[in-house]
Design goal:
By secondary structure, the protein is mainly alpha-helical. The protein contains 12 helices and no strands.
């Protein structure tokens, strides 16, 4: 019975690494890291840009903020505490997130990986709650106007992010390493969606001539769909046989050597 089970597992492992999937995974991994670099650059520059705006606007009292700021920016000024609670943790997420997916760090610096993971979950939760506060209750265009769609998109993305972080935490506590990896991928994909949204927004505003008041909510939904889809495709391609604890690279390397 033991031999039969082992044989079945071996067959599944071999099927997992059948051509052309190892090459597909290698190509998509390289493309994914390049896309992530672009999104991280976009997200980090956006964070520093927003921080500079807040520091400039709060440096001295402003009698009539409505006369100085546009309807999009004034929300962050009026709710600057929530904005800082979104920017600070967001910056840490963008710095820590990529490191959590590097095998060399997980293998050689496990304590760093664990503490960085705890920081990631705390910062992600704070970022989701603070961003949700602004986007849900004070969307661009108002809840009772064009901003309603943004409010609904923010609600979905914020809640789903919190669910993913919770599942990532509970799965690793149960030593379900495969499930933990998948929920971490989902959570980081969701938190990168704001950078994807900024890229989409910039491209569409410059190529269509449509204003931000129309595109902002639409690109929120679009970015969410794109990042969630990309995460699920990658998870599906790299979910290894069994409980998923084995890394796909180990199986592909073993298959190539046999």
């Amino acid at each position: 019975m033991t031999d039969m089970t082992a044989g079945a597992g071996s067959q599944r492992s071999t099927h997992f690494s059948d051509a052309p999937w190892p090459m597909v995974r290698k190509v998509l991994e390289a493309a994914g890291w390049m896309a992530m670099a672009v999104l991280l650059f976009t997200g980090i520059t956006s964070i520093f840009g927003r921080a500079d705006f807040l520091l400039t606007m709060t440096a001295q009292p402003i009698a009539n903020p409505e006369e100085v700021m546009n309807p999009f920016d004034i929300r962050y000024y009026q709710h600057h505490l929530a904005t800082w609670l979104h920017l600070g943790p967001g910056l840490l997420i963008f710095c820590i997130g990529p490191l959590q997916f590097m095998r060399v760090i997980r293998k050689k610096y496990i304590n760093f990986h664990r503490w960085a993971g705890r920081t990631y979950i705390v910062c992600g939760s704070i970022g989701a709650l603070s961003g949700g506060f602004i986007g849900i209750f004070y969307p661009f265009g108002g809840v009772d106007g064009p901003g309603f769609s943004e409010s609904m998109a923010t609600t979905f993305l914020a809640v789903y992010t919190l669910v993913c972080l919770y599942k990532a935490y509970t799965s690793i506590r149960r030593k379900e390493f495969g499930a933990h990896r998948e929920w971490m991928i989902r959570s980081f994909g969701l938190m990168l969606a704001i950078a994807t949204e900024r890229v989409m927004l910039g491209i569409l505003m410059n190529t269509t001539g449509i204003g931000i008041e129309v595109l902002f909510a639409a690109t929120f939904w679009m970015a969410g769909v794109v990042n969630i889809s990309a995460s699920e495709i990658w998870i599906s391609l790299t979910r290894t046989p069994g409980n998923g604890a084995r890394h796909w690279k180990d199986l592909d390397t073993k298959a190539a050597a046999s």
